[in-house]
């Protein structure tokens, strides 16, 4: 408990009661609570989906399989007829060993991975250039302000 000698330690500082600070706190705690409640809802949905998947799971999730055809790009008709094509645009044909069924499984090709890698590298290079230009511009601005301040101080003498 607070005593009279330390009464100022018990009060909320006035800086914390500014509207901007309060709005930031409300936003932060709103996002935290949204994340917590969203995670709880998603776990309930995932539990329901897991029960559904157990009934209709593809054979390659339940048993051993052999790749019959390597990962390749889906073509026009395959995109419409094979559901696995819609996930990545690439599929591989597999043969399940126990049930001896042929199914398609979505996959990621090396071409696609390489394309995504270079796209990421390009984006990072572009951001590097943008932020380097911003740093140089800010430094020039600060240098100009400092020289103006020194000039004004010298003129005032």
From TrEMBL:
Keywords: Cell cycle, Cell division, Cytoplasm, Cytoskeleton, Membrane, Mitochondrion, Mitosis, Signal, Transmembrane, Transmembrane helix. The lineage of its organism: Eukaryota, Metazoa, Chordata, Craniata, Vertebrata. GO terms for biological process: mitotic cytokinesis. It comes from Sinocyclocheilus grahami (Dianchi golden-line fish). Required for normal cytokinesis during mitosis. Plays a role in the regulation of cell proliferation. May be a component of the chromosomal passenger complex (CPC), a complex that acts as a key regulator of mitosis. The CPC complex has essential functions at the centromere in ensuring correct chromosome alignment and segregation and is required for chromatin-induced microtubule stabilization and spindle assembly. Increases AURKB activity. Inhibits apoptosis induced by TGFB1. Overexpression induces swelling of mitochondria and reduces mitochondrial membrane potential. This is Protein JTB. InterPro entries: JTB (IPR008657). The keyword Iron does not apply. The chain crosses the membrane at residues 21-42, 116-137. Interacts with AURKA, AURKB, BIRC5 and INCENP. May be a component of the CPC at least composed of BIRC5/survivin, CDCA8/borealin, INCENP and AURKB/Aurora-B.
